[in-house]
Structures are given as structure tokens and as C-alpha cells.
Amino acid sequence: EAFNARVAGAKALNAFLVETPDHALAAADAADRARAAGEAPKPLAGVPIGMKDLFCTAGVPTTAASHILEGFTPTYESTVSQNLWDAGAGMLGKLNMDQFAMGSSNETSAFGNVISPWRRSDGGNAPLAPGGSSGGSSSAVSARLCPGATGTDTGGSIRQPAAFTGISGIKPTYGRCSRWGTIAFASSLDQAGPMARDVRDCAIMLEAMAGFDPKDATSLQLDVPRWEAGLSSDLKGKRVGIPKEYRVDGMPAAIETLWQQGVDWLRDAGAEIVEVSLPHTKYALPAYYIIAPAEASSNLARYDGVRYGQRDLPEGAGLQDMYAATRADGFGAEVKRRIMIGTYVLSAGFYDAYYTQAQKVRALIARDFEQAFERCDVLLAPTAPSAAFALGEKSADPIAMYLNDVFTVPSSLAGLPAMSVPGGLDAAGLPLGLQIIGRPLDEQGVLDAGL
Ligand code: GLN
């Protein structure tokens, strides 16, 4: 009840698209009944969670923050959300996000900007971006509207918003969380993960969310480790790599200081620090912004006005006109930009020059990480090249927006587990995030270093 009231009282943040107080209350009641009956509590008994609106939830409208899905109410539950309910959690509501998870500031939502609960301490009172695409999740957890929320991360959408709002978030190894029932953006990159106040809460939530699912062909057929029970902040015998290519020009001094602070913390925890090289880092962003739109243009072909949500049927229109009108009206500008880029790089004359080339770069980036992990156990880097920016500051310049993903996309391309944890505040009092990247399947190493 307390969390439901907080959600209802925090409308100004625009973090929730749909509120589902009864769902959360039912989980709380079930937890109470189980306790009264003397049953062992489930791992998330009665915990109220916010669900990013990319996860299909049975009987609850799901739009991916796009007009094209307005009116769509799934008849089925995504595997990740079902796993959370099976672990005892309840849903407070569906969280706002960048439309189809495309964006880094939540400004591409068709249902308005999400506002970060943070403000600069140095006078500038402009509302700040909560990061994106999981901006409703970051804003809600940071404002304590919910103890945890789900996010999805294709190129940084869990980590960058977590960094912008001073919370923790982990993207597990590609394949740990089922993609079934999660609206697809770029299928070879999309991964769900938790966003919560601290590392321990993330570990508990991730244990519930992850697991093999025969309904997702890329789901990993592995047991879910007991990450929470395994947490250890003792890093003796561990080596932490500092990727030198992440020291980019024009990085604010506060980010440098933060990174050094992180190095000192991990050294104090017993780790040995080594410098490593990821030579193809500078090609990661361009490769990502070819591969992700290419996959998106294919995935989004299904929104045709026939199968889901919105349909525009101009008078006397034929089928083609209906497709065109629905898509012109239903998709936002950023989504259209991605579809245009995607169809271009996949088109017959350009496929080899762009798409094939980007896939080669992707392989080189994965090999860079493999080689670096011969010399260290985890990597430490900043999560984003800046603190939260003001709403509107970058929205007119897609390239400036894409550049904010420079530190998060390489590990996505390589499918590696990566986490953002709060590292401290900059001179304006805004949170900064530190990123830990691990070997495939080594979520434990990532969580331990983050602890
Ligand atoms: N900001 C990146 C993009 O716009 C990443 C988004 C994501 O991870 N979903 O594609």
C-alpha cells in the first residue's frame, strides 16, 4: 500500500504508464498468507516491482511507449515477468521508456518525458534526463517509488540510466534471461536485467529473472547460480583490467576522478590492477548503430496495423495505404530513423559494405575482450562519458545522443555481463556510475566487484 501510494503521488516524474496497484497488493497478500501458514518465504515474497513497458504482461496494456501499440493488451506473460511473479513479486505498474527502447534519455517515448528525481546543486534547475531507454525504471527506483524494476539493455539501456540516477543495474550474459514475451528491438543484443538500489538487490532479482526457457532459441541451457549467496567483497587474487581505449578525449575531469576512485576501491578490496587494451573500441559505436537498426528494421516489420494495436484506415484506402498510414502515424521519429538506417544497410547494394562489415567488427570486438580476459578477471570503466544532461539538451542531435553509449555498446556487442554501480557525485551533485564488465557467464565476478 505504501508503494502504491508513492507511485500515485509521484505523477510529475511520469515514470509509470500504467498503474497496477491490485497486482502488487495480491502479491503482498499472498506473502502474508504464506507467512501465516508457516511456509518458507519465496525469494521476492510480496516485493512490489516496476515493469519496463517492453515486457508483455497478460491483461495489462503494453505499448513499448509507442503509439503504434496503443490499445494492445497481451494475452500472455513474458517469461521474465512470469519468473518474477513465481518468485513472489507483484507489479506496481508499467514503466515509461524510450520508444521501442531506442534512445538514451527517455525522450523518444510517445507518452512524454520521464523526469529524473535529481537536480543540479549548482543552480541550474532544468529537469534532467533519467537516461534511457529504461528511464522510467531508473527514475522510479531512484525516487524510491519501487525497490526494484526491470530493465532491458541492448546497448546500455540498463547501465546508463542506472548511472544517471545513482542506482545499480546489471545486464547479464546474453541468453541468461529469456527474451520470450519481451518486445524485440535488436534480437542478438537484447537482454533483460534488474535495476535496484544496490548490488545485493540486483543479485536477488536477477536470480529470479534468469533461467533457461525453451521458448527462446538463444536462451542458455544452464542452471541459475546462487549469486546472492555467493556475494563476496574480498577481491584478493582477482585482477581488474583498465581498458586504456576508454580514456576518450574530452571526458570530463569528474569522470576521470571517479574512475581513479574505483581503481583505489578495488585495490583496497585486494585486487591487482592491470592495464589492458581493447584496440577496436572506437569501431564499436558505428558497428552497433548499423547492427541494432538492421535488426530493428526487421523486428518492427510486424507492426502493420493488422496484428497489433493502432490501425489508420484512410477513406477508400487499400492495404498498402493502410500500412503506410499506420506506420507513418504510429512510429516516432527516432524509430523511423532506425528503420530507415536498418533497411538501408540491409539493402542489396549496401549489405556487404555496411552490415557484413559491422558483423566483422563485432567479431573483432569480441576477440579484444577475450584477449583482455586472459590478463584479468573483470574490467573497470566509467558507465557513461557524462553525468545526466538536461532534457532537451541532446534531443535535436541524434549523433550526440548516440555518443553517450560509447562505453556501454562494446560489451553488448560481445554479449558480456556488465553492471553499473553508483560511484559518487560530480561537482554539481549529480551521480556518476562505474561499470564492471565480466567474462561470459561470470555475473558473480561482476557483482562481487560491484559490491
Ligand atoms: N541508447 C542505445 C540505443 O538507442 C541503447 C538502447 C538500449 O540499450 N535499448 O540504441
UniProtKB/TrEMBL annotation:
State the SUPFAM superfamilies in the record.
Answer: Amidase signature (AS) enzymes (SSF75304)
Active-site positions, per UniProt?
K52, S133, S157
Keyword annotations for this protein? ATP-binding, Ligase, Nucleotide-binding, Protein biosynthesis
Function field: Allows the formation of correctly charged Gln-tRNA(Gln) through the transamidation of misacylated Glu-tRNA(Gln) in organisms which lack glutaminyl-tRNA synthetase. The reaction takes place in the presence of glutamine and ATP through an activated gamma-phospho-Glu-tRNA(Gln).
Instruction: Give the reaction(s) catalysed.
Output: L-glutamyl-tRNA(Gln) + L-glutamine + ATP + H2O = L-glutaminyl-tRNA(Gln) + L-glutamate + ADP + phosphate + H(+)
In Swiss-Prot or TrEMBL terms, this protein is called: Glutamyl-tRNA(Gln) amidotransferase subunit A
Region ranges (Disordered): 122-146
**What family is this protein classified in?**
Belongs to the amidase family. GatA subfamily.
Q: Does the keyword Nucleotide-binding apply?
A: yes
Q: Which GO terms describe its cellular component?
A: glutamyl-tRNA(Gln) amidotransferase complex
How it assembles, according to the record, is: Heterotrimer of A, B and C subunits.
Q: Where is the composition biased (Low complexity)?
A: 123-143
Would the keyword RNA-binding be found if you checked this record's keyword annotation?
Answer: no
